[in-house]
Design brief:
The chain is an all-alpha fold. Helix content is 69%, strand content 0%. The model has no long low-confidence stretch (mean pLDDT 82).
């Protein structure tokens, strides 16, 4: 048992050696707790006794730990649902969402500050970076964050949102002199852009995203 304990314990404490997704602090905490309990158990268990001393107290502590674990399984999922509900209340009200043609840098900045979890705020901030500030790097970052956040619950976004962000990202990438990536992103959505994003259609053609 000691040999197997060493075989399991030592690799778990070596960074990148353990084949598991457990935090190293978790491994170290487990080793310290296990060694401590082993020492206490040896001190409390006379060699000639069938059971260690303080058995009743140990059983009581074990029962409390099990109860805490069961309680955590009940309480934590409930808290996660509450957190998701609270997050949804921080979405931009539909009547407060500006159109792309109306968004300004100040308004986009304010929306992102007040609603950092709403992907539409990232879309507006990215478009302001692109249109008013000519800040391509920050525009690309905001568009990618909007796409990464598009599946957040309760945002109520349809497929048109993803298409709009992707087209704008394609235009930004084209401005950054990455034509192949721009065409790969925006080429399949040129028809959508012609119908829904007339304000940037000419730029898509000028940048050869849509030929």
């Amino acid at each position: 048992m000691q040999t197997w304990a060493l075989r399991l314990m030592l690799p778990a404490l070596i960074p990148l050696a353990a084949d598991a997704h457990v935090d190293y602090a978790g491994h170290l905490g487990g080793v310290i707790a296990g060694l401590s309990m082993g020492v206490i158990l040896q001190m409390a268990w006379p060699r000639d006794a069938e059971r260690p001393e303080f058995g009743t107290a140990a059983a009581g502590i074990g029962g409390v730990v099990v109860a805490c674990g069961v309680l955590a399984l009940v309480v934590l999922p409930h808290k996660a649902v509450m957190a998701e509900t609270a997050s949804s209340s921080r979405l931009i009200p539909d009547e407060a969402v500006p159109t792309l043609s109306d968004v300004t840098s100040d308004r986009a900045r304010a929306l992102l500050e007040h609603y950092p979890h709403d992907p539409r705020a990232h879309l507006m901030r990215g478009f302001a970076f692109l249109k008013d500030d000519h800040d391509l790097a920050d525009a690309e970052e905001q568009f990618r964050q909007a796409l990464a956040a598009k599946d957040l619950g309760a945002s109520g976004l349809d497929s048109g949102f993803e298409k709009t962000v992707t087209v704008l990202l394609a235009l930004t990438v084209a401005y950054e002199h990455r034509p192949d990536e721009a065409r790969a992103l925006g080429g399949p959505l040129c028809g959508y852009a012609d119908e829904n994003l007339p304000e940037i259609t000419d730029n898509l053609h000028k940048q050869h995203v849509c030929d």
